[in-house]
From TrEMBL:
GO terms for molecular function: hydroxyproline O-galactosyltransferase activity. One of its GO terms (biological process) is arabinogalactan protein metabolic process. It is a single-pass type II membrane protein. Its cofactor is Mn(2+). Pathway: Protein modification; protein glycosylation. It is found in: Golgi apparatus membrane. It comes from the Eukaryota. It comes from Aegilops tauschii subsp. strangulata. This is Hexosyltransferase. InterPro entries: Glyco_trans_31. Possesses hydroxyproline O-galactosyltransferase activity. Transfers galactose from UDP-galactose to hydroxyproline residues in the arabinogalactan proteins (AGPs). Is specific for AGPs containing non-contiguous peptidyl hydroxyproline residues. The addition of galactose onto the peptidyl hydroxyproline residues in AGP core proteins represents the first committed step in arabinogalactan polysaccharide addition. AGP glycans play essential roles in both vegetative and reproductive plant growth. Its EC number is 2.4.1.-.
Amino acid sequence: SIRPQAMAGRADPGGVLSGLLQKSTSNLPKEISVDDKLRDLGCTGIGRKIAEAEMDIAKAKSEGYLWGNGTGGTGTEGSSRKKFLAVIGVYTGFGSRLKRNTFRGSWMPRGDALKTLEEKGVVIRFVIGRSPNRGDSLDRNINEENRKTNDFLILESHEEAAEELPKKVKFFFSAAIEAWDAEFYVKIDDNINLDLAGLIEMLNVRRGSHGLYMGCMKSGAVVSEEEQQWYEPEWWKFGDSRTYFRHAAGSLFILSNNLARYININSASLQSYAHDDISVGSWMMGLNATYVDDDRLCCLSAVQGRRSLLKCFPWGNYDMFVCLFVCH
C-alpha cells in the first residue's frame, strides 16, 4: 500500500497538466485573418488592382477592344499615325495579273494618282499571300510586280492556296489594321467593277461610326454534299434547316475600325468556315455590331432606282470581266 504522506509529497498531476497546457497555448501563434496575411506579404493592394483591371477589361470590351486612344497601335506609336478614311483590299491570286492590269486601267488609280488618293485618306491594295513553295517563281513574280506598282499588301503568314482561302480574311484584316489606322476596312473580290467615288462618298457620310458591318446582306442554303460547289464541311452546325444566318455577301463587305481590330486580336480563336463571308458573319453575330444592309453594295446594275456601286461578272469568265470595263 502507498503511504498517505508519500502521496502528499507528490505534485498534483492535474495541476502539472494544466500548467503545461497553459504554457503551450501561450506559445501558439495568434489567429490572423486573410487580410492580415496579405498585409504581412505586402499584397494589400492586390484586390484593388484586380478590381481595376476587371474594370479596364470591361471598358475595353465595350469599346471594341481598342487600346489607348483607339488609333492603330499601342502607346505613342498609335497617336502619331495618320488617320485614313478607308483601306480597300482587293483579293487577287498568282494567276490574276491580267485582271490586276485591267483594274489599274479602270476604277483603281495607279502610280502618282494612287499616291494622291492615299494622301486624301484612301488606301487601295491588292491582297495576296505567299506561295506554298515559299520563295519560288510565283513569289518572285509578285515581288517584282510590286516593285514596279507598289500596290500590294502581301500577307507573309498566309499561304495563297485554294484550301487556305477561308483563312485569308483573318490575315487581311490583321495586316491592314496594323499597317494603316482607318475608319473602315473594305474587302472586295477581283470580279467586280467598283464605283470608287460612290463608295468614298458612302463612307464619308458614316465617319466616326463604330461597330458597323456593311454590305449586301443575304442568307442561303448550306451545301452539305461534298461533291457539290460551295460545300460546307461544318454544315451540321447550322441546324436541321441547313440555312446560313444573315451575312454580308463576299463580293464586298466593310467593317469599322473596332470590328477589324477585334478580328486582329482574336484571330487565333475565331472559327473559319468554307467561305470568308460566312466566317465574318459568324464573328459579327457574337458582337454588338450594327448591320447595314445597303442594296447599292449588291451585284446588280440598278436597285430600286438607285445605281449600284459595283458590277460583278461570273467567276472564270474573263471576257465578260474585260467587257465590264471596256463595253460600258
